[in-house]
């Protein structure tokens, strides 16, 4: 759920937005909401500001804690803080992930802080620590920005990290050797997961005295399931995720992946996912917008996708984004397929 949909510079309008959101979630009868704790008004997936007080980024509004509390108390749902792992725009003076082909940041991907730089890691840990200290939530959803392509990271600190792991400092040399390539992808995959576990500890640091269950979920690109070789394009692996987190959030978005037959593609994705991970640990995230055409996907089609996934044995299903201003998807179409009695776990 985008807090950008709730935020408004007019406090009266913002309050009306919040009331509308709470009413909608209450009517849905869903169990869990992934609530975006960062501001991304331009939709590029990079955090320009945050919705909670912190030491490093501007605060667009101190909104996350209030909305999370209202959702928990009035809509009776669990709330996960949906946070970036690396894609924080802290301006100049920080080292960002670079591509070996250009020596610069890739224009085709999120701007990401290099996790191989200790100053970057410390800053991100402090942001998560501030989140845990100043807000109340039930778990974390790690954004889909925690990836490296097969040309990243080429920053000096990254090359030093590869050398420490008994890999060459030369990425092109790694790419030209299948054995080195396999080792490099494994190293990067585990490095990213280990860093998210550090962030989990940071977010939970001030919460431990509450003795409440704290759960984690991380977004996984579907192509890494459908085409295993593509794991090297993202440094993501489903079984690694299953070992590191309570839930693997598969981005089950057929139009984003340009699937020729969305229904068949979803069935195959479900089958391949269940062959690796238990249904209880999987969350399938559907899309409600076709970002290629910039048009909403019909609610009836989204509901059909939910039915297909249910038939294949997927229990935990949600969608993104939820535009409560336009009632999209249509709650009257979606509510029957998101019935708690059918063990569905909806995550707008």
Task: Please characterize this protein's 3D structure.
The protein has 348 residues and is α/β, with parallel strands linked by helices. It has a domain at 3-91 and 112-146 and 191-251: Glycosidases (TIM Barrel), CATH 3.20.20. Helix content is 38%, strand content 13%. It contains twelve helices and eleven strands. It has a seven-stranded parallel sheet with strand order 1-4-5-6-7-8-11. A two-stranded antiparallel ribbon has the order 2-3. A two-stranded antiparallel ribbon has the order 9-10. Strand 4, helix 3 and strand 5 form a beta-alpha-beta unit. Helix 3 packs parallel to helix 6. The N and C termini lie close together (5 Å). Residues 340-344 have low confidence and may be disordered. It holds the Pfam family GHL13.
Strand and helix layout:
Layout: H1 11-28, E1 32-36, E2 38-39, E3 49-50, H2 64-74, E4 78-83, H3 118-134, E5 139-142, H4 156-164, H5 171-175, H6 178-204, E6 215-221, H7 223-226, H8 231-234, H9 238-244, E7 247-251, H10 262-274, E8 282-287, E9 289-290, E10 295-296, H11 299-312, E11 316-320, H12 331-334
Parallel strand pairs: 1-4, 4-5, 5-6, 6-7, 7-8, 8-11
Antiparallel strand pairs: 2-3, 9-10
Helix pairs in contact: 1-2, 3-6, 10-11
């Amino acid at each position: 759920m985008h807090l950008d949909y709730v935020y408004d510079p007019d406090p009266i309008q913002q309050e009306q937005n919040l009331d509308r959101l709470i009413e909608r979630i209450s009517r849905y009868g869903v169990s869990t909401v992934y609530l975006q704790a960062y501001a991304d008004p331009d939709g590029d997936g990079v955090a320009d500001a945050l919705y909670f007080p912190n030491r490093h980024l501007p605060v667009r509004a101190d909104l996350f804690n209030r909305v999370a509390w209202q959702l928990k108390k009035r809509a009776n749902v669990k709330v996960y803080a949906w946070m970036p792992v690396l894609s924080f725009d802290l301006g100049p003076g920080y080292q960002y992930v670079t591509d070996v082909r250009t020596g610069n940041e890739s224009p085709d991907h999120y701007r990401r802080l290099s996790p191989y730089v200790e100053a970057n890691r410390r800053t991100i840990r402090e942001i998560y620590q501030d989140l845990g200290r100043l807000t109340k939530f039930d778990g974390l959803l790690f954004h889909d920005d925690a990836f490296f392509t097969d040309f990243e990271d080429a920053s000096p600190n990254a090359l030093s990290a590869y050398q420490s792991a008994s890999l060459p400092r030369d990425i092109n040399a790694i790419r030209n050797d299948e054995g080195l390539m396999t080792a490099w992808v494994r190293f990067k995959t585990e490095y990213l997961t280990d860093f998210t576990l550090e962030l989990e500890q940071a977010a939970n640091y001030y919460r431990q005295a509450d003795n409440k269950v704290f759960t984690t979920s991380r977004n996984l690109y579907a192509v890494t399931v459908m085409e295993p070789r593509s794991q090297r394009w993202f440094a993501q692996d489903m079984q690694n995720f299953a070992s590191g987190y309570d839930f693997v959030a598969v981005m089950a978005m057929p139009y984003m992946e340009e699937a020729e037959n969305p229904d068949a593609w979803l069935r195959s994705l479900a089958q391949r996912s269940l062959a690796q991970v238990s249904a209880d640990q999987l969350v399938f995230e559907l899309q409600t917008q076709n970002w290629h055409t910039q048009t909403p996907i019909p609610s009836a089609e989204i509901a059909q996708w939910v039915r297909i996934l249910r038939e294949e044995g997927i229990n935990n299903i949600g969608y993104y984004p939820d535009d409560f201003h336009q009632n999209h998807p249509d709650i009257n179409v979606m509510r029957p397929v998101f019935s708690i009695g059918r063990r569905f776990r909806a995550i707008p």
